[in-house]
Structure formats: structure tokens, C-alpha cells
Amino acid sequence: MATITRENLGLLNDKLNVKLSKDDYFPSFQKALKDYSKKANIPGFRKGMVPAGMIKKMYGASIFYDEVIKAVEKEIQNYMVNEKPEIFAQPLPMNNDLRNLDMNMPEDYEFPFEIGLKPEISVDNLSATNLASYKVKVTDEMINEEIERLQNRHGKMTEPDSVASEDNVLNVQFQETDADGNPVPDGISKDNSLLVKYFKPVFREQLMGKKKDDKLVVKLNDAFDEKELDWLTGDLGLDKNDPAPADKYFSITITKVGLVEKREMNEEFFNEALPGKEIKTEEDFRNELKNEIQKHWDGQTRLQLHDQIYHLLLDTPMEFPEGFLKRWLQRGGEKEKSEEEVENEYPTFTNQLKWTLLSDKIIKENNLDVSDEELRDSMKKEILQYFGQMKMDGDTSWIESYIDRMMKDEKQVDATYRRAITDKLFSWLETQVKHTSKEIDAEELAAMQHNHSH
Prior knowledge:
This protein has helices at residues 22-39, 52-83, 140-153, 201-207, 220-223, 226-235, 267-273, 282-314, 322-331, 339-365, 372-386, 397-407, 410-432, 442-450, and strands at 3-10, 13-20, 87-93, 109-117, 130-136, 156-158, 168-177, 189-195, 215-219, 249-261, 434-440.
């Protein structure tokens, strides 16, 4: 009868030794040979009439190997079900030499495996730190910028004869040249669209009065400030971290002069820009925009608080079976990784493990879950968000039938559940940590967000 013994190898690292006797695998091997002989199609023999000796000679070694491995896997699976050890991944085979499997000399075999054990977890540092709960104040400048953006977005594009304003839009062709405007062999050639205001003020003067097909030769850092130059060099396929491209010369050919006529501040514009709000006055329009902008930044500041909570939890002391995990990383995938690859991936890998262990523990201990109704509500929000702010007048029953189809898609349900349970997890965590409100401007918050992503 098969037996499994367990011994400690080190920190959170144990060995399972599976011992099989002949009786654990040989009867199934003999049965598999007989079953195979009944199904085998071998030229010169009727189906089911192939001699057992020939089947054994031709396929026996492979069948024997399969039946032994099946017996081992069955014992390991039963052990996991009955003993329920808290482990990472699956048991990892330890240097098993399978060359000694001989169907002609069946005997007792031993198969060693190692397992990595999950550490004990204690989440008790949530209230120990006072986190900052930021609040972005919406300014008149932010509202004015959004109004201008919407006026341009919903405006009418015209094609004046010449450049007359920094608000003109220029379709241009960049062609790499030397300082005299002669094309560089195999140089860069790229079409682009730029506002006149993107150029340096001193260069804008040279653009005034220019028309379609007019050309100018420029050195990039003479025509553009650092912010626009950083964007443009990347768009041209140049290394924006290399200062040399800024000294390159380009011929700029104007292929089209455009101008967006901004929309007037009237009721028609208000309701086109913010459909479904039935806005009649500029004051109401500005107030509604302020609310929309505030919602956006409140969402961003909430994510920033979540980031602080995330890092607070990741500071929880936790030990891992490092040797086992690195061996599993190296050998557990479809393709074996190099030691260098494993060393590079390990820090991120253990952070992910730590977060998974912590979040699973919190979710389980606090009975956090997502009901079918909540799943459907979440899917509905996703659908409405996908269609944006379109006016959803008339029959919207199609949404419910669409959700019915989504609920039958296992991958879709799983993805929606993960997003919903994560949101519910952080909502619960927000109630457990101390956080003090602190006013901040949008630029400061954006800089914070640039420094992290999870």
C-alpha cells in the first residue's frame, strides 16, 4: 500500500516522500495493456486480436510509465485533500530519476516532492499609521480650461487661407534636412498636426501669414520648448532622452491650415456637451462642470489613498520559502527560466504573493463577497461607461439582455467579480485606517500618481 511521509527541509519548506508498492500500480498497468490490445490497429492483425506480448513490446514501456505516474499523482492529490496543507503552487518533483522504471522488473518506488508552505499572517498595523486623504479643490481656471476644451471639441473646423492666430491648427510634413534645407538621405519623414501655440513665441511670428504649401527650415530646439519637444521627438521616432535629436534640422511643409470655431455659450451647446442634464444657463453649466471635475478628482484621490493602504499592507512582515519559490519560478512554467531571470522576477513575484495572501485573508475573515445582483450592477456600469455619455433615450431593455449574456461568460464574470471584490475590499480598508483630510492641487496629485502603478 502506498505511503507518504513528510519531513522538514527548512523555513516553510517540507519534503513529501511518496512510496509505491508493486500492488499500487501493476494491476492498472496490466489492465491498461489489455484495454490497449483491444483498441490497437496494427497491420496484419484483426482489431482486438493483437497478441498481448506484441503490445507490451511495442507500447508497454510508455503505458507502464503512465500508470506509475498516475498512481503517484493520485496519492499526492489524496494527501492534499485529506491533510489540507497550506501550500504555494503544487508539489515540485525532486530529482526523480525515472530511467529505473522497468516493466519487466516491477518493484517498490519512491518519489520525493517538495512543498512551499504559506506563512502565518497577522494584519494588525492598519490603524497604526495616519494616512493623508487628499482633496483637490476645483478652481475657476480648471473650469475655464474644461469649457474651452469642450468648445473646441464641439466646434466647427474651418480652413482659412493663411495662419492668423495661435489657435490655428496646422497639418504639416516633417522632412529631415541639413541646416540649409537639403534633404538628408534616409532621413525621417513624418506627417503631423500641431497647434500654432505649440511653437515657441518667437517662432510663431514666422508662421503668421503662411499658407498651404509654404515651407520653413527649423532646428527643433529653436522652434519648440522642452515640453513640446519631448513629445515631438518621441512622435518622430527619436530618443527623447538623448539631447542630440534636439539639434536636428527639419523642413516643415504646411499641408493644411485649419481653425476651430469655438461654440457659443448657449443652451444648445450646454446640452450637447453634457447630454441629459437639461442645462439652460451658463451658471448651471459651470456648476455642473465643477461637479463633474470634482467627481473625477475625488476618484483620483481615492485611488491615491488606496495606494497608501496597499503599501501599508505590503509593509506587513512576512517570511517565504525563498529557495522553493525560486525553484518553482524556474521550473514551474512551460519554459524553464534562467537563474538571472528568476532573480529579476522574484521581488515583484513575492510582492504579488504577499498581496494575494493579505487580501484573501481580509476578504475571508470579514465575509466580503459580491452577489449576483452586485455583479449585474457592476456590468451595467461598465456598459454605460463604455457607451460614454450618450443619450440613452427610448427602450433600454437591451442592456438587461446583454447582461444576461455576459453572466453566461465565465471569463467575463470572473473579471467583473475580481474588479468588484477589489473595490469592496478597499472600501472596507478605508474604514479601518486612520486618514486625515489634506487639500492639494491637481498638479501635486498627478505627480504622486506618476510615481506608482498597481
